[in-house]
Write a structure and sequence with these properties.
The protein is built from 4 helices and 2 strands; from the N terminus they run αβαβαα. It has 121 residues and is mainly alpha-helical.
Length: 121
């Protein structure tokens, strides 16, 4: 497949673009939870049959494009394997609450100073 981009006349003569196809649904090497995460992605590169198609044409040589396509596939799998960090709920400390209220009071008094006072005689 021919690639666009830089390369001059070479672009029109040499097939350097790469299309990597990875069958996510039937891959025996992917654990089930990673497979499910990838299939649940709303990714336009994923077909209805569960095949991930990655098109690489950034570089002038086919080898660099192959490496780029593999790297992007690894990144997708790596992101799917990452589990989100569990958040521990905490309450604000008493001093933090006091500081917050003091700040609000200061700000309110500053705004009060800005208002015009109307005197009625």
């Amino acid at each position: 497949m021919r690639a666009g981009g830089s390369g001059g006349q070479n672009v029109n003569k040499v097939a350097t673009a790469v299309q990597l196809r990875f069958d996510v649904k039937r891959s025996p090497n992917l654990p089930e939870y990673i497979r499910k995460k990838i299939l649940d992605l709303q990714d336009s590169r994923l077909t209805k049959e569960g095949i991930m198609i990655i098109f690489a044409d950034r570089h002038r040589t086919q080898e660099l494009n192959r490496r780029d396509a593999r790297q992007r596939l690894f990144e997708i799998i790596r992101n799917a394997a990452r589990t989100p960090k569990h958040r521990i709920k905490t309450k604000p400390t008493l001093s933090a609450k006091k500081k917050r209220l003091e700040g609000k009071t200061k700000r309110g008094s500053l705004k009060k100073l800005r208002t015009k006072k109307i005197q009625i005689d």
